[in-house]
Specification:
Layout (H helix, E strand, L loop, with lengths): L4 H12 L2 H10 L4 E2 H8 L3 H14 L2 E6 L2 E6 L2 H35 L1
Antiparallel strand pairs: 1-3, 2-3
C-alpha cells in the first residue's frame, strides 16, 4: 500500500529536522563545498557531520563526488535552496510578529505605571 502524501511530507520535514542538516543546506546554497570546509564552518566532530551528511545523501537532497581524498557535497537541485529561502521568509514574518507583540506588551507596561 502506498504511503499517503501527507505522511511522505511529514517524513521529509522530519528528515530536515536537525540543526546540522539545516546548516549544511544553508552552506551548500553558495555552491559545492568539500567536507573539510563544512567541518570548519559548522565546528562539530567529523563523525557527527558524516552521519548527518549520510542522511541528506540517502534522502537525495545532496550529492557527493570524490576526487582523490577530497569529498565535495552539493545540493541535488534548486528546489532545496528555494525551500530554505521560503523558511527564512516565514521565520522572518513569525519573529517580526513576536517583536511587534513584545513592543505592545512593553508599551502596555509603561502605560500601567
Amino acid at each position: 500500500m502506498p504511503v499517503p502524501l501527507y505522511q511522505a511530507k511529514a517524513e521529509f520535514f522530519r528528515m530536515l529536522g536537525h540543526p546540522v542538516r539545516i546548516r549544511v543546506l544553508e552552506l551548500l546554497q553558495g555552491g559545492p563545498m568539500p567536507v573539510r570546509d563544512l567541518l570548519a564552518a559548522i565546528e562539530i566532530e567529523p563523525s557527527a557531520l558524516s552521519q548527518q551528511l549520510a542522511v541528506l545523501r540517502r534522502s537525495g537532497i545532496v550529492t557527493s563526488t570524490r576526487t582523490g581524498s577530497t569529498v565535495v557535497y552539493e545540493l541535488a537541485g534548486g528546489d532545496v535552496a528555494e525551500l530554505m529561502s521560503a523558511a527564512r521568509r516565514i521565520l522572518t514574518e513569525m519573529l517580526s510578529g513576536q517583536h511587534e507583540l513584545l513592543e505592545e506588551l512593553r508599551e502596555a507596561e509603561v502605560g500601567a505605571r
